[in-house]
Every structure is written in structure tokens, then in C-alpha cells.
């Protein structure tokens, strides 16, 4: 049965995978195949029985916007069987490792403010969240 619906999900970092595989003796059987960023859209497509394109992508900070762009292009394409799409984005900060290594490189803003394209810009701030539409 299923639905002719595309699914595009963007993600950044692999912290959940790192946390779940940190102790090999306690790692569950399907952790390796189920927790990777590559499976984000596929898990949704399988669960909801979606039959359209299913694409997981990582384009760093722009991942969810690129996912939205690809979904719009898929719906717009006259050759597409999908007339609707599920789009998502996710980023979770679960361990301090990435921020600890970014700090000496001055990637992160020391005043915890992000002033993109502004003369006050002095780095960026990381955020976390999950969104689906």
C-alpha cells in the first residue's frame, strides 16, 4: 500500500552514534546499522511505508535547509511520482568533544552570540533541536 511521499532529513554531527558505541561490550546488536546519519530518512520511510525518494544528508550547518530545497525540487519536478514530502533536520549536543576541539580554533563565539554577516561577528554558537514538517 504505502504512500508516494518523499523523505529528506538533514543532520550534522554523529554524537548519538559516538555515545551508543563508546563501550563496545555494551553496544547493542543493531546499533551500527541503525544509528548512523545515513539511516535518518530511511527509518522514517520504512516506518510510515513511504515509497518516494528517501535521502539523508549532511551539509554541515545547512543540512535542514538543503533537505527542504531538495524536497521542493522533487515535488516541483514533473517527472517525480512524489507530490508531497516529509522534511526534517536534527542536531543533538550530547558530548563536549566537538566544542572542546573547536574552541582553540576560535570557531565558537566567546560571548555566546552569533552575529552572522555583521562586523561584530566573532564565531558562531551551536544549537540543538529536531524539526519535521
Strands, count: 4
The secondary-structure element order is: EHHHEHEHE
C-alpha-based Rg, rounded = 18 Å
Strands of the largest sheet, in order across it?
Answer: 2-1-3-4
N- and C-termini, Cα separation: 22 Å
Main sheet?
Answer: 4 strands, mixed
Helix content: 25-40%
Overall shape: it is: flat
Query: Segments where pLDDT lies below 50 for 5+ residues?
Result: none
What is the number of helical segments per DSSP (H or I, 4+ residues)?
5
Q: How much strand content do the residues show?
A: 15-25%
Residue-averaged pLDDT: 88
Structural class: alpha/beta
Pfam families: ketoacyl-synt
Domain Ketosynthase family 3 (KS3): 1-133
GO biological process, one term: secondary metabolite biosynthetic process
InterPro entries: Ketoacyl_synth_AS, Ketoacyl_synth_N, PKS_Beta-ketoAc_synthase_dom, PKS_NRPS_Biosynth_Enz, Thiolase-like
Give short descriptive properties of this protein.
5 helices; flat; alpha/beta; 133 residues; four-stranded mixed sheet
Write structural notes for this entry.
This protein has a 4-stranded mixed beta sheet with strand order 2-1-3-4, with helices on both faces. It has a domain of 93 residues. The chain is built from 5 helices and 4 strands, in the order E-H-H-H-E-H-E-H-E.
How would the blueprint of this fold be written?
Elements lengths: L4 E7 L3 H6 L10 H4 L5 H8 L6 E4 L5 H14 L7 E8 L5 H6 L26 E4 L1
Parallel strand pairs: 1-2, 1-3
Antiparallel strand pairs: 3-4
Pfam families: ketoacyl-synt (PF00109)
GO biological process, one term: secondary metabolite biosynthetic process
GO molecular function, one term: fatty acid synthase activity
